[in-house]
Amino acid sequence: MTEGKGFWHVRKTSKEKVLEAAVELFYAKGYANTSVREIASRATVNVALISYHFNGKQGLLETLMTTFFDGYIGALEKECEKVTNSTNSIRSHLESACRSMLLFQQQFDVLSRFVHREMTLDSILVREIMSSYLTKERHLFRYLLEEAFAQGEMITPVNEYMIIQLRGLLTLPFLHSQYIREVHYMVASESYFLDRYFETVRKWLDAHIGEPSIV
Prior knowledge:
Elements: H1 14-29, H2 36-43, H3 47-54, H4 57-82, H5 90-107, H6 109-118, H7 124-150, H8 160-175, H9 177-184, H10 191-208
């Protein structure tokens, strides 16, 4: 069985069972090497149900990708929305966003690993996600960092390399989970690892923004 936590609820609907089966098989065998019949068999549903809900394997892939990014970037967007009426420092909002994004990936670690791996490929779907979800992610990170600079929490003006570094820190444990396991003998989906790893993220924030504070 593929390592990782369940996709959604404990008592899953047929549609959720299909999505969970799909991500497990796509991750283990690859998208191209997985058939709709295999997905239906693992989910214990009729093949026709997959066609009805997702219009085939490509529709399943698109649903998995958008489901991941809705949750992952949604955690960042939620924190950005709090800034206007907040008395907390921008640093505290950025730290909260980073932790929420890491926790989301930990909760859905198989989905996260699959999506990050898929995003290294060149396809029409990946390009569409780059131009929509990932462009939005870049904009939201830049917004928080520029607000921190405007409010005097940062000395150095924001640049693209900072955004690339920060995003890399947040995705690395799930993009390179096999490397972490085989070379460092750690499991990225475990809470102990994530707690310790988050301290590294906090040190990055310390270096660029400083300690969180409440006004």
